[in-house]
Amino acid sequence: MVYYRDIFSWAEDKDGRMVYIDDVPRGASCGCVCPSCRENLIARHGEEMTHGFAHASKERGANLTMCLKVIMFKLAEQIIATEKRICVPSYYGIYKNSIIDFDTVEVNDCFEREDRQPDIFAVTKDNQKYLIEFCFKDYVRHRQTVDYENLNCLEIDLAGQSISERSSLKDFLINSDENRRWINNSAYFNSIEMLYQSNGKTVRLVDDKECSRCPIKNSCCAVYCKDQKAVLLIEHNERKYRLCKLEKYTQFIDEYNKQQEEYVRMQEEKQNIYKELLQSRGRENADNRVDLNSEGQNKLFPQLEDENINSAEKSCFDCRINLQWANKDGWAVCGCYERLGIPRKIKPDQAVNCRFFVRKNRK
Question: Model confidence over 329-340: pLDDT tens digits?
Answer without folding.
Answer: 788 888 877 766
